[in-house]
Specification:
The protein is mostly helical. The protein has two domains: 2-198, no CATH class; 203-411, no CATH class. It is built from 15 helices and six strands. Helix 12 (261-273) packs across helix 14 (341-366).
Length: 412
């Protein structure tokens, strides 16, 4: 917020040049930032495609441009474009690449916001009601630069056989730049501090607790996944041995597993909530029962529990979501103490509700079609997960907030 305050008069010419760094042309800065954000992750995917092409058969077949095309298509898939392989639609997004794009957009958005902080009215003018279009206009130009790179990539990499969807990729890019990039620009420019200061304290407290609970729950879900994979490590090694892969192809397969690790983490989170997920049509994986059919040879699938009734102790895993929500809410709301029971209940329940909605949206992004036939339906049960999340996260957030209020009242 201090970046919006009127700058003092300076007589040192070096000070004038440093202040001019925050008044460079907005359109130029935003366009370059959008192009850089798209190209940063695109270059990583292109390099990965070339490395994967070489590791497959040491470059005996095809040409490096084939690896570049595969890397570009993978980058488009990270934006939800999907792809067709021998006429079969593959719609699941590799969320590892998507997460990389989110981090890059956030970091460049923060730097862009700091660069355009001197544009528009200052803090006093904003407080007086003057409209400030700096963040919306910067976000729009930033998005335009990102979408242009995406469109050029689709034009060069798409073929009639793969046919990735340009419309879905553009929509995902607009949401990515608008939500993540726009928020980062607002934070970096100082506008977010001013805007959030007008929100009620309970809203800010609930939002902080919801974010903390969501991050903690994702970490716990990932930990449960890694533990399950460690327990079934022999099965994963057996899958690799049955594939008879060369060292290069095995390295490529491990890299693919790492890219899909965020998807599997969200599957694990849906499993802990209770509704579970499906690995093909007419399948079910929950803490109370597992119904599976034939599965493809993929190492990450070794973490799945055995088919049939589950051990009795797995039901205890259902206690993890409310416990995580309670601990995260208790920790996050320590910055917003209150002695009123009604206000504490509102903050805790609101945090649980927002956390449940956020996890349901992420779970919806993690699934899709991964093959023909029965493998066209793979992913968490989003609606049931939302309902269970509202109940479990809401109860956990409520208990954590009330426990914190009881502590403050006893200290008082």
């Amino acid at each position: 917020m201090t970046s919006l305050l009127p700058a003092p008069r300076r007589t040192d010419p070096r000070g004038d040049r440093s202040d001019a760094a925050h008044r460079r042309p907005l359109v130029l800065l935003a366009t370059l930032a959008g192009v850089a954000a798209a190209c940063s992750t695109l270059v990583v995917c292109l390099a990965g495609g070339v490395v994967g092409w070489f590791l497959t058969d040491a470059g005996a077949h095809g040409a490096p441009r084939d690896g570049l095309r595969i890397g570009a298509v993978g980058w488009l898939m990270a934006h939800g474009s999907g792809v067709h392989v021998q006429g079969t639609a593959i719609t699941v997004a590799p969320l590892g690449l998507t997460l990389l794009a989110v981090v890059v957009v956030w970091r460049l958005g923060l730097r862009l916001g700091d660069s355009v902080a001197g544009h528009g009215p200052d803090a006093d003018a904003i407080a007086d009601g003057v409209r400030d279009w700096t963040v919306p206009s910067t976000t729009a130009v930033f998005t335009l630069g990102y979408v242009v790179v995406l469109g050029v990539t689709h034009r060069l990499a798409a073929t009639a056989a793969t046919s990735p969807s340009l419309v879905r990729a553009v929509m995902s890019a607009v949401l990515l730049c608008g939500l993540v990039g726009g928020t980062a620009i607002a934070v970096g420019s100082g506008r977010a501090a001013i805007w959030t200061s007008f929100l009620p304290l309970s809203v800010r407290a609930s939002a902080t607790a919801a974010w903390r609970a969501l991050v903690w729950y994702a970490a716990v879900s990932g930990l449960v996944l890694l533990v399950a994979l460690a327990v079934h490590w022999n099965a994963a090694v057996n899958v690799m041995s049955q594939l008879h892969t060369s060292p290069g192809a095995a390295t490529l397969l491990i890299g693919l597993c790492l890219v899909m690790l965020p998807n599997a983490t969200l599957f694990s989170g849906s499993y802990l909530l209770g509704p579970g997920f499906a690995v093909g049509t007419h399948t079910l994986v929950t803490p109370t029962g597992v119904v599976l059919g034939p599965l493809p040879m993929f190492p990450l699938l070794a973490a799945l529990p055995g088919n049939g009734p589950t051990p009795s102790w797995t039901v205890g895993l259902l206690a993890l979501p409310p416990l995580v929500a309670a601990a995260a809410t208790y920790r996050a709301l320590g910055r917003y103490p209150t002695k009123r029971w009604d206000e504490a209940a509102l903050r805790g329940a609101g945090a649980g509700l927002v956390c449940a909605v956020g996890f349901a949206l992420l779970a919806a992004l993690s699934g899709g079609a991964v093959g023909p036939g029965r493998m066209s339906a793979v992913g968490p049960f989003v609606l049931q997960g939302l309902l269970h999340g509202v109940a479990t996260f809401g109860v956990g957030g409520l208990l954590g907030s009330l426990a914190l209020t009881m502590r403050h009242r006893r200290r008082a």
